[in-house]
Design brief:
Elements: E1 3-11, H1 23-27, E2 32-36, H2 44-57, E3 60-65, H3 82-102, E4 107-112, H4 114-119, H5 124-138, E5 143-145, H6 150-157, E6 162-167, H7 191-203, E7 206-208, E8 214-216, E9 221-223, H8 231-244, E10 247-249
Parallel strand pairs: 1-2, 1-9, 1-10, 2-3, 3-4, 5-6, 6-9
Antiparallel strand pairs: 7-8
Helix pairs in contact: 2-3, 3-5, 5-6, 7-8
């Protein structure tokens, strides 16, 4: 198989003494780290530690921006004014950029989180607001999102580099969107099944959607959620399966 793909994970999602996931172990597996920027999760100490560890591991750092919603982990839609959303995104990227630079690296891309990620698949106004934030802050930053989303369409129209993402451990609707976490079966847990699914994704072969049909994804990057139970084992199984199938696993941008 002649293919290559990035492997990313959401990291730095603890807060204070509360820990979520195993950032250090995942940084030994993934090639890109979507680091929480303090709005849906994380704090200054966590951001600095994860950035330092990512630089040590040669893992690309991405700003995972979201709604200001620590209690809801950024998974609740907020009907925020576009200008305020733009400013919140700029604020988050800037905060993470400071810690990335302190570690000798840089922020190399932006990925929305949770409810914001899903909202801007269709929400024109909020998608435009997030695009505006990237354009104002640094229009050379690639942006990651769901293929076919309004967010990526508007980003492309603004001249931004887009990165199409698929999810290792999430179920898909026939339309290619993510199944709501409120629905049973929305999150996958069997490492072997997930790994085989990711090989198919990378090869451009169909996978099964939630209704039993088929859907074809051609990702530039595959995400393993850091908060999924067994995330480290899943990530290792995915990477091993991809490499065994001849897929080159590497960042979509050069490390900084």
């Amino acid at each position: 198989m002649s293919a290559r793909v990035d492997l990313n994970s959401d990291l730095g999602e603890g807060f204070g003494n509360w820990e979520l996931g195993d950032d250090d172990a995942l940084l030994d597996v993934v090639t890109s780290a979507n680091v929480a920027c303090g709005f849906h999760a994380s704090d200054a100490s966590i951001m600095r530690r994860v950035c330092a560890r990512a630089v040590e591991s040669g893992v690309v750092i991405g700003a995972q921006v979201g709604y200001r919603d620590l209690p809801g982990f950024g998974r609740r839609f907020i009907d925020i004014e576009p200008e305020a959303l733009t400013n919140d995104v700029i604020y988050q990227i800037g905060a993470l950029e400071a810690f990335a630079r302190a570690a000798g690296g840089r922020v190399d891309y932006v990925k929305p989180h949770g409810a914001l990620y899903n909202a801007i698949v269709h929400h024109e106004e909020q998608a435009a607001a997030v695009v505006d934030a990237i354009v104002v802050h640094d229009r050379t930053l690639p942006v990651m999102g769901l293929p076919g989303s309004v967010w990526l369409q508007k980003a492309e129209a603004a001249g931004l580099t887009t990165v199409q993402e698929s999810f290792a451990d999430r179920a898909y609707t026939p339309e290619g969107t993510l199944v709501s976490r409120r629905r049973e079966g929305s999150v996958l847990h069997d490492a072997g099944t997930i790994a085989r699914r990711c090989v198919a994704m990378a090869a451009g072969e169909p996978i099964q959607d939630v209704d039993g049909g088929s859907i074809t994804l051609r990702p530039d990057s595959i995400c393993v959620h850091g908060d999924t139970p067994g995330a480290v084992d899943i990530a290792r199984a995915v990477r091993d399966a991809l490499e065994s199938a001849g897929v080159e696993v590497r960042p979509f941008v050069a490390t900084g």
